[in-house]
Amino acid sequence: MLVTRPEGILPNRFVYHLLNPIVNALRSLPFIILLIAVIPLTKLLVGTSIGTWAAIVPLTIYVGPYMGRLIETSLLEVNEGIIESAQAMGATPWQIIYRFILPEARSSLILNLTTATISLIGATAMAGAVGAGGIGDLAISYGYQRFDTSVVILTVIVLLLLVQIVQTLGNWLSKIR
What we know:
The chain contains eight helices and no strands. It is mainly alpha-helical.
């Protein structure tokens, strides 16, 4: 989206104004509602509405726009002077993106992708709660439905540890030059 913004490197008003409201609309939906809303599309694409493969469709629809907006935010943080300098040196738009913008936005990109990954962990657990398997399914089937609080607490602890590991790794990677 950054590239096609009206003031972007390769401006394309049509593409930007088409994608921007779609991204905003998809980001505003809670995952559980999106999961239910795309059941017909999921059935069409993978032939079923339950199971691991069925979870991939709503997870992709959920995380794609979210990551897109986070990446756009990271890239917008790059100093305009760097882009202007690259243009003055005769760099092509793709050279500007790959040789100047991405290296400059690296730390912010890593931190934002870490945030998206953590969001995806939560959404994946929710997908498991409605038939996709995994830790969400474990929490519902063996914890909630059987009134076994210890299973629910264990799944929460596992999710907390997983999120902590991902966040720590993201913080560490963002500091490496």
